Amino acid sequence: MQLYNSLTHKKQEFIPHEQGRASIYTCGPTVYHYAHIGNLRTYIMEDVLEKYLRFTGLDVTRVMNITDVGHLTSDGDTGDDKMLKGAKREHKTVMEIAQFYTDAFFSDCKKLNIKTPDVVVPATSYIDEFIRVIQVLIDKGYAYESGGNIYFDTSKLEKYYVFNDFREEDLAVGVREGVEEDSNKRNKADFVLWFTKSKFDSQELKWESPFGTGYPGWHIECSCISMKNLGEYLDIHCGGIDNAFPHHTNEIAQSEAYLGHEWCNYWFHVHHLNTNSGKMSKSKGEFLTVSLLEEKGYNPIVYRYFCLLSHYRKSLVFDWDNLNNAVTSYNKIIEKTALFVNETSGDIDSMEYDRLMKNFTDAFDNDLNTSLAITALYDVLKSETNSVTKTALIKEFDKVLGLDIIENAMKANQGEEIPAEVLALVEERKSARKEKNFVLADEIRNKITALGYEVRETRQGVEIRKI
Ligand SMILES: [Zn+2]
């Protein structure tokens, strides 16, 4: 499989460190609020990557952190501690907030058919490990104490800015607006590993450490959780593109300083979901969540389908018209599948099976081209091959796509107990059309519509469905 690697800035054949296995690390959510659907796009695409690697026969282990403490990175961080802000907003403790939004996150993931990673680690459960690794970084001369905090010294590295798809000057300054300079740092890019003194004095969660009572910085948690669970060599590190700098850059700095060798071979970054007014965020405009989609009557799976229609390395514009188009096209897939899914007679046509399967794997092998994979799905629906072959292919495809196609097609068939009255009208209309009495045919169609059904001529014959 060819995969674009942000580290080398090109597509590369994916070769895992250990033959037959693949280790994946995913940056998890900061659990102070609901995830917006822009965050969830990243998790959907990562899920598809994981499922495709499994599909190719690899034994995949995927690990994810939950940031329930320490998303702060320096004393210059923007105004608020998000966890604390969430707790104040809802009159709860920080841990109550963390638990509530962790559950909400996984509930959203379930609705989007995102598999829970094999290992999920809340940052608060790994404090001892963070302390141990920070101590090693101090001992090796990569970290220093200043103003009560422990900082990583980026000047000790030969190469710090690894993801130079971006210009270095863009990386170094103005990454986030409103970031104040932290005067304790020796170098501009240095970042906090452990806070004991912080302007966020009201931290609820603090731990004893050799560096003083305090709490960890954000970046250290991912390095530690990954190395502890997946070892010294990581195959793929995933995340949203906005994490490439500074978060992932700093993860590499710490991990490689700690290990003394290269750490992760492939970096997989999913690009933004934008609205027409710009990058989606929790603070701007309508707060788009899975619950909001449901309130508006959308099946969350359609949002997953919407994401699959675009390549993960392109930013994607979300608006309701685009989502409605995805609904129409998803329903078409379900309707077409419903036409043959219940037919079980016949044998699989292996020539056609292989040909159509190759379209699908070729799409994925080319840097996870999900939109071409959806085209491959349409190729199956359009194909002249028998129903059993089509059903078998779609079942396999959906192990990766996760669109509940077979289930929803079967449901559509079960749900279609069309009343005799409607069926009689459909027959009447057929005769009217045969006699070219289109006025009468239209009148009958209106009657059918009034009864809550839609009738359409298709190449496969007349289709009737509930409106
Ligand atoms: Zn991370």
Notable traits:
single chain, 467 residues, alpha/beta, Rossmann fold, Four Helix Bundle (Hemerythrin (Met), subunit A), four-stranded antiparallel β-sheet, 16 helices, elongated, binds zinc ion
The shape is elongated
Secondary structure tally, helices: 16
Distance between the termini: 42 Å
CATH topology of the largest domain: Rossmann fold
Number of strands: 16
Level-1 CATH class name of the largest domain: Alpha Beta
**Low-confidence spans: pLDDT under 50, at least 5 residues?**
171-178
**In percent, how helical is the residue content?**
40-55%
Strand order of the largest sheet: 5-4-3-10-11
Explain what the structure shows.
Helices cover 45% and strands 16% of the residues. It has 467 residues and is α/β, with parallel strands linked by helices. The chain folds into three domains: 2-270, 3-Layer(aba) Sandwich (Rossmann fold); 290-415, Cysteine-tRNA ligase, C-terminal anti-codon recognition domain (Four Helix Bundle (Hemerythrin (Met), subunit A)), CATH 1.20.120.1910; 420-466. A five-stranded parallel sheet has the order 5-4-3-10-11, with helices on both faces. A four-stranded antiparallel sheet has the order 6-7-8-9. The protein has a three-stranded mixed sheet with strand order 13-12-14, with helices on one face. α11 (350-365) runs parallel beside α13. The radius of gyration is 26 Å and the shape is elongated. The two termini are 42 Å apart. The relative contact order is 0.12. Residues 171-178 have low confidence and may be disordered. Zinc ion binds at residues 27, 222, 247. Zinc ion (ZN) binds next to loops.
